[in-house]
Amino acid sequence: KYINFKQRTKKEIVNKLREKDFTEDIIEKVIKLFEKYGYIDDYAYAGGYLRDKFNLKGFGKERIKHELKQRGVSDNIIEDVINENDLNETKKAAELVERKYGVWDYDIKEKRRIEGFLLRKGYSYDIIKETFDLLENI
User: Fold this and answer.
1) At what angle do helices 75-84 and 42-52 cross, to 10 degrees?
2) Which terminus of the chain faces fewer neighbouring Cβ atoms within 10 Å, N or C?
3) What angle do CA 109, 114, 117 make, to 5 degrees?
4) What local confidence, expressed as pLDDT, does residue 138 receive?
């Protein structure tokens, strides 16, 4: 039931099995079996997670990286998946700002609020600067 509900990472399955008091030997056998039959694929999980969070929630790379690390996905897989996907963070951040705050005509106080909003979404300072430049020139 646990893996049938949604895709899971190896770490999530191991933690669930430990929570149910299975021995490490049993956990190791289950993980090998699940990997063999494709029930566990951290690479596919990371790719789907990245696309969903970027396209649906508007999260930036930094937040996505952080959340994938929390779920036990390795740094190598995270970097590979991010490099494979062409994410236009500046465009996505501009869309978020326009949707939430409307047409670009802000004072310094409002720019700070927008900056905080984008930082919480996981965008870097460089992307935020590019976004502000883009919106000011529209």
Assistant:
1) 50
2) N
3) 130
4) 67
User: Buried b vs exposed e over 89-113: b needs ≥16 C-beta within 10 Å?
Assistant: bbebbbebbeeebeebebeeeeeee
Give the pLDDT band (50/70/90) at residue 127. Answer: very high
Contact 118, 128 (CB under 8 A): yes
Residue-wise pLDDT tens digits, 58-94 = 999 999 999 999 999 999 999 999 999 888 999 999 9
CA distance 129 to 6: 37
Contact 92, 79 (CB under 8 A): no
pTM across the whole model = 0.83
Distance from C-alpha of 18 to C-alpha of 69, rounded to nearest angstrom: 20
